[in-house]
Design brief:
six-stranded mixed sheet, alpha/beta, 327 residues, Rossmann fold
Amino acid sequence: MTRWMWSLPAAALASLIGCGGSQHSVDEKYYLVSALTKLEYWQEAASGVAQASKQLGVVAEAVGPDTYDPKGEHEQFRALLSKKPTGIAVSAGDPASLKDDIDAAIAQGIPVITMDSDVPASKRLFFIGTDNYKAGLMGGRLVANRLDGKGNVVIFTFPEQPNLKERLQGYRDVFADHPGIHVTEIVDAKGDPGVVFDRTMQIVDKKESVDAFVCLVSIAAPEVADVLTRKSVTGKLVMGMDSDQRTIEGIQNGMITATLGQKPFTMGYLAIKMLDDLHHHAPASLLDDFSRDAFSPLPTFVDTGVTLIDKNNVAAFVQTQKAAQSK
């Protein structure tokens, strides 16, 4: 599928859609559906949803299971359809379990967009989030450079999520140019920080030859850093994902090498704004193939960006984050 990206900054894009005011009805209600809703990452996304809701004067809610539970997410989505929501944004824990749900919503005239983790085989209207392949390339280049082109790497991920598959492919493509780098294990974290902690502890206790830990999910890097700190292990490269507090603290204290910070607040904010615009300026049919329409009013992919954070810029990142949170 060809990706058509909007190159406008997120703030400018938001200004072009849903402006609030009297056009809105008390009956309008929008939802963001995801798993692991208690994670800091998804709390930030929920804050974006709340901000858009306030600006537009509509009801919007972030829902889903607290744990990595694709079945629970599927059941939550199906339950929402009975409420006839105005629009749904969804991040797929397992795209296979949500494809038919999304298609059913579209068939009922309910706009659905994917966010953070896509379901490209579905009839979803478009995707908002990180270009995960490029993020993987960015992380892979840093790891390859810091390892000087050689070393053993363990990767923590959720194997079935499409966004993480794209990230992994980015790393693999970089490592392919460095035959001295070997991925010795890919660990299914199963949405459980304890799995990451326990496996890292085993690696350290058994003195397995691992030079770098690559974490494709936000829950992993802080657990790796915790084990290395407890065991007084130094000299290991730890590549994180996202900018939750524990990961940032790990960079500040030198136990995490770097992380790739996504923009979940922006994703949630834009998702509600764009769903609202779809409701008030609906295309003739939600079933049209907008990706093939040169005059489509909709994008295929809205890239919200990613930031590499390491010891060189972590102080500036924290300062900017605090300033934004104080507004």
